[in-house]
Amino acid sequence: MSGFNGFDENFSLANKTALITGAASGIGLAIAKMFARKEADIIAFDKSSDLSELEKYVKNKGRLFMGISGDVRDKKALQTMVDKAVNDFGRIDILVNCAGVGLIDSALELREEVWDLTMDVNVKAPFILSQMVGKTMIDKGGGKIINIASQAGIVALEKHAAYSTSKAGLIMLTKILALEWGKYNIRTNAISPTVILTEMGEKAWAGEVGERSKKLIPAGRFGHPDEVAACAVFLASDAANLINGENLVIDGGYTIT
Length: 257
Ligand SMILES: NC(=O)c1ccc[n+]([C@@H]2O[C@H](COP(=O)([O-])OP(=O)(O)OC[C@H]3O[C@@H](n4cnc5c(N)ncnc54)[C@H](O)[C@@H]3O)[C@@H](O)[C@H]2O)c1
Prior knowledge:
Elements: E1 17-21, H1 26-37, E2 41-46, H2 52-60, E3 65-69, H3 75-89, E4 94-97, H4 112-140, E5 143-148, H5 161-181, E6 186-193, H6 199-204, H7 208-215, H8 225-236, E7 247-250
Parallel strand pairs: 1-2, 1-4, 2-3, 4-5, 5-6, 6-7
Helix pairs in contact: 1-8, 3-4, 4-5
The chain binds nicotinamide-adenine-dinucleotide.
Residues 22, 24-28, 46-48, 71-73, 98-102, 121, 148, 150, 193, 195-196, 198-201 line the site of nicotinamide-adenine-dinucleotide.
């Protein structure tokens, strides 16, 4: 069938290079590690300079590693990383926009600085980096872009004015890139998790608010970073070559009602 070349049923990412932002902790770290287990070479970008544990892990798996610390709001740092990645690895096959901030407050109290920071990190930076990497993917014949959004981008949650708006924007950006870049063999998809038990998730949903929220999830529990990483492996793999502009929701059924 035209355009279909089969795929590895173990979802291998062998011979692929993946660039992951926010790779120093939580979901991004789990994605980078699982990608390495699936034989991808890893480029990790994070504002934290603590990428040494990940470097050791990736190299132990026999994969190549490049770690760069910087802020996703720093366009120059992003361009330097993309240029270096293409120079050293030849190409970027997979981009995961995972770096994000989750600052919440009531709509009446939310400060303008928090709004701006949230939009800059959660929506603008994924756009700028996708544009930079997208150009290199077009040159090299295609690729996969995965944006880590949130269930908060689909349903309204109290105190989430900035965060939910940013993630809803990221979901729509995903669809636009899918629409415009599908013809270049680039597939762009989002993943929208429920509360995931990372540092960010545990802080935001500790105590009573978390217990109440878990009762609203038909599956009755929050998620683990590896469960999000598994979704990313699938979307990054050749098995997902016809999935484009989708938002893969991993929420135990929270948003179905
Ligand atoms: N944990 C959850 O419950 C949950 C649920 C849905 C979606 N998400 C999304 O998943 C992504 C990862 O979240 P997490 O829970 O792993 O959080 P985390 O705080 O554990 O990890 C976020 C990473 O992003 C990095 N980062 C933050 N701002 C940055 C910047 N300006 N430049 C470069 N790096 C920066 C941090 O240093 C950190 O390593 C975020 O986009 C978040 O919105 C998280």
